[in-house]
Amino acid sequence: MAISVPGLAIRLPDGRVASYEEMREYGQTLQHFIVEQEAVLAQIEDTQRHNEIIDYLNLLAGGYNEQLCAYKAAEAQRQQEMLVILLRLGG
């Protein structure tokens, strides 16, 4: 019996411009996808295919983590800019 692992059906958001909701939704979808694939891994007997799936999941998680860091940096920058504006207006 051949078992295939489908790719994640949604695009990774660009953390520099993504909204909180976009990042959260992708993170939840990715988490669900990884759990599904971990269940499939138990059925795979071919070590090479097993490792390919693990590498793919690590690639997806790594890409998300990079964009999450970009999102957090951009969000911190936006908050800092807002603070400067508020200080100028109030000050």
Structure, described:
The chain is mainly alpha-helical and 91 residues long. The protein has one domain (20-90). The protein is built from two helices and no strands. It has helices spanning 20-41, 47-90. Helix 1 packs antiparallel against helix 2 (47-90).
Short description:
The chain is mainly α.
Characteristics of this structure?
single chain, 91 residues, mainly alpha, 2 helices
Query: What is the average per-residue confidence, as pLDDT, rounded to a whole number?
Result: 89
Low-confidence parts, pLDDT < 50 over ≥5 residues? none
Multimerization state: single chain
Please count the helical segments.
2
| Structural domains: how many | 1
Distance between the termini: 70 Å
Q: Please bin the fraction of helical residues.
A: over 70%
Number of strands: 0
Q: What general form does the structure show?
A: rod-shaped
Radius of gyration: 19 Å
